[in-house]
Amino acid sequence: MNTVTENTEFWLDTVSIRQIRKPDLPGLEWGGEYKHFRRIYADAYQRVLKGLSLIWVAELHPVGLIGQLFIQLNCDRPELADGVYKAYMYAFRIRETFRSRGLGTLMMKTIESDLKRRSFSVLTLNVAKDNPRAQELYKRLGFVVTSDEPGIWSYPDDKGIWHQVHEPAWRMEKTL
Ligand SMILES: CC(C)(COP(=O)(O)OP(=O)(O)OC[C@H]1O[C@@H](n2cnc3c(N)ncnc32)[C@H](O)[C@@H]1OP(=O)(O)O)[C@@H](O)C(=O)NCCC(=O)NCCS
Predict the structure, then answer these.
(1) Which of 87, 100, 157, 170 is deepest in the core (most CB within 10 A)?
(2) Ligand 1: does its nearest atom lie under 6 Å from the Cβ of 36?
(3) For the whole model, what pTM was predicted?
(4) Number of domains, the chain
(5) Alpha-carbon distance 22 to 30, whole Å?
(6) How far apart are CA 39 and CA 47, in angstroms?
(7) Which ligand 1 atom is the nearest neighbour of the CA of 137?
(8) CATH of residue 30
(9) pLDDT tens for residues 43-61?
(10) Residue 50's domain spans which residues?
(11) What is the pLDDT of residue 10?
(12) Ligand 1 centre and the CA of 99: distance in Å?
C-alpha cells in the first residue's frame, strides 16, 4: 500500500475539495485512463464558464487530482436538473488507491452543502444497475431509487470517434 494512504486521518485532512480551474483539465484524464473523455470534460468546462455546471475535484499534494464529481445545475432533461430546485450529479470517481476511506462521502457532503447554499433542494443521479457498492453508498447517504433509467448515451472520444454506451441504471434522488 502507498505510504500516503497508511494514515487515513493524515491524508484525508490534507485533501483540498474545490471547484475546477482550467489547468486541472488534463488531470481529469488520470494519466491517460480517461483520455477518451477529453471532449466531454472540455464541454463540461464550457458549461461551468456559463454557470450551467459545476466540476468539483479533490486534490492531494503531491499526488494531484484523486477525485472528481460533476454537477449539472440545468440541462435539457428537467427531471434531472431544472436550474432551480433539482441538480444532477455524475462522473463521480475517486482514484482506486484512495477509495473506501471516506473521501467520496466527504465530497458528497461538500457538494450537498454547496447546492443548499445555492437554494437547490433535490439532488439526482443515475447509478449503474451493476454497481451495487455505489448504490449502497448512496443509500447510506439518504438517496432513494425513484425510477429506471435506460442509460443509453453516446460521446465523441478524443479523436472524434463516436461511441455508444448502454448502461442500464437506477435513478436515485435525495432531498437536500
Ligand atoms: C463510488 C466512489 C466514488 C465512492 O468514493 P469512496 O471514497 O470510495 O467513498 P467512501 O470511502 O466515502 O465510501 C466507501 C463506499 O463507497 C462504495 N463504493 C462503490 N464503489 C466502490 C469501489 N469500487 N471501491 C470502494 N468503494 C466503493 C461502497 O459502498 C463503499 O463502502 P465500503 O467501503 O463499506 O464497501 C468510489 O468508490 C469510486 O470511485 N468507485 C468507482 C467509480 C464509481 O462507481 N462511481 C460511482 C458512479 S455512480
Answers:
(1) 87
(2) no
(3) 0.93
(4) 1
(5) 15
(6) 12
(7) 29
(8) 3.40.630.30
(9) 999 999 999 999 999 999 9
(10) 3-175
(11) 82
(12) 6
Coil, helix or strand for 70?
strand
Of the pLDDT bands very low, low, confident and very high (cuts 50, 70, 90), residue 163 is: very high
CA 162 to ligand 1 centroid distance, Å = 28
Q: Which atom of ligand 1 is nearest to the CA of 140?
A: 29
Give 129 Cα–ligand 1 centroid separation in angstroms.
14
**131-150: per-residue pLDDT in tens?**
999 999 999 999 999 999 99
Distance from Cα 133 to the centre of ligand 1, integer Å: 6
Residue 93 Cβ inside 6 Å of ligand 1? The answer reads yes
And the C-alpha cell for 176?
A: 437536500
Altogether, the residues listed in the chain come to a count of 176
Q: Is the pLDDT of residue 3 over 60?
A: no
